[in-house]
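The protein record quoted for completeness.
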Amino acid sequence: ENEQPPLNSAIMLTLLTASVIQCAPECTSVYWASGTAVTPAERFATSAAQMSPGELPLFSWVEFRVFRGREPDTWSVFTTGMTALGLLEIEVRNSLVQPSALVERVYDIAHYLTQAGPVLKDGDTLGESATERIQVHHRPSAWDREGPVLVIDL
C-alpha cells in the first residue's frame, strides 16, 4: 500500500547503485534493465552525484534508440524505460531532423514528462516556443510493445 512512485524508486535505486560503484572499483558499467541501457560506471556515478529535480539521469534509465526511418533521408527514435517511470514510451517516426538533434528533442520531452507526469493527451501539441506546434498522438507502437505510446511528429 505504501509503494513508492516509480520516479522516486528510480532515484533511490540510482543513489544506491552509485554507492555500490564507489565501493567496487572493478565495476565497469551499470545495466538498467527497465531501460535496457548500459552506462559506464564512472558516468553513472557522476550523473547520480549531479542528479537534481531539474537534471535527472535519463540516459542511465532510458534507452533512446535511433535508426534510419522507412522514408528516404529520415530518422526514427524510440524510448525504452519510460513505462518503468509511469509514463508512455515515446516514438518519433520518419523525421527529417538529424539524429543528434532528434535525440536531444526526445530527451527534453522525456525529461519534461518526468517532471509534469503523463500530461500529454492524444491530439495535444507541444513546442519550445509559443508558435511551435508539434502534434502528439497516442497510438499502438510500431514495434512489438504493449499498449499505446506517444507518437511525436517531429
In short: Residues 6-23 form the longest helix (18 residues). The helical segments are 6-23, 41-49, 58-61, 99-116. The first strand starts at residue 29 and ends at 32. The mean pLDDT is 93.
